[in-house]
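To the wet lab folks,

You asked to see what we're planning to order before we commit. Fair enough. Below is the target structure as tokens, and below that is the sequence we designed to fit it. If anything looks off to you, flag it before the synthesis order goes out.
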């Protein structure tokens, strides 16, 4: 199934196989529907994946499916990117990388560049069923826009790189989840995707590769190597198709 969508200002042409739709995506949405009907409250699912794994595109597609099929409850999709620290903060705070101090803005997207406590507090509100605002990251402003969307639906899917990160502070987030999914892919394939994505924003290929290797790939390895086990683990092959690696019983 072909799916065209614009994600963060970048046109995306995605394709999902009938097998992935019928055997993975629809059953996942049915499971969330059944959980909501059983628990009679808001259901929160976390989807974690390394940079370049196509999280936002996939969840946009899942949201579309949930609205088109009568047997499914509609889901609301949100992301953790709205919890980036503000640009002024990142420009004026430093971290040590490879033995030298650099401004946080140089590694924007690493765990330290997010406001973790603010994220956890808002996740708690969402999991608790509150109708509340949720921030969205604006790539033109390079800053979050507070309360850009309202969380209202009974099934909410939150996506982000570090939602299952097994490190102090981050590992607490999964306590709020009713279900979790992790998506992984080969490191070199993710690098290729990230470079191609940056080129689409108008950056020359060599500069794109340098940025990805310095800023993105450490985050890719962190996610792949230090994420907690999810209820459902999916893989992406080199053709971009999804398959089940492991499912909790």
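Sequence we intend to order:
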């Amino acid at each position: 199934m072909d799916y065209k969508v614009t994600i963060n200002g970048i046109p995306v042409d995605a394709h999902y196989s009938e097998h992935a739709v019928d055997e993975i995506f629809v059953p996942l949405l049915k499971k969330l529907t059944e959980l909501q009907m059983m628990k009679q409250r808001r259901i929160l699912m976390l989807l974690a994946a390394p940079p370049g794994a196509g999280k936002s595109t996939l969840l946009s597609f899942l949201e579309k499916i949930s609205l088109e099929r009568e047997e499914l409850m509609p889901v609301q999709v949100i992301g953790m990117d709205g919890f980036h620290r503000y640009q002024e903060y990142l420009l004026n705070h430093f971290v040590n990388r490879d033995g030298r101090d650099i401004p946080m803005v140089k590694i924007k997207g690493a765990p330290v560049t997010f406001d973790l406590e603010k994220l956890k507090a808002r996740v708690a509100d969402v999991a608790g069923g509150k109708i509340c605002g949720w921030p969205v990251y604006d790539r033109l402003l390079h800053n979050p826009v507070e309360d850009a969307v309202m969380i209202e639906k009974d099934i909410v899917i939150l996506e982000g790189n570090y939602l299952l990160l097994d490190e102090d502070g981050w590992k607490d987030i999964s306590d709020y989840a009713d279900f979790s999914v992790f998506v992984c892919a080969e490191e070199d394939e993710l690098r290729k995707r990230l470079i191609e994505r940056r080129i689409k924003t108008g950056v020359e290929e060599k500069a794109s590769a340098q940025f990805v290797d310095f800023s993105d790939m450490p985050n890719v390895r962190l996610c792949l190597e230090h994420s907690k086990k999810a209820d459902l683990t999916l893989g992406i092959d080199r053709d971009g198709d999804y398959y089940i690696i492991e499912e909790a019983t």
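Structural context that might help your review: The chain has one domain: 17-247. The helical segments are 18-39, 55-68, 87-92, 116-127, 187-199, 205-225.

Thanks,
Computational group
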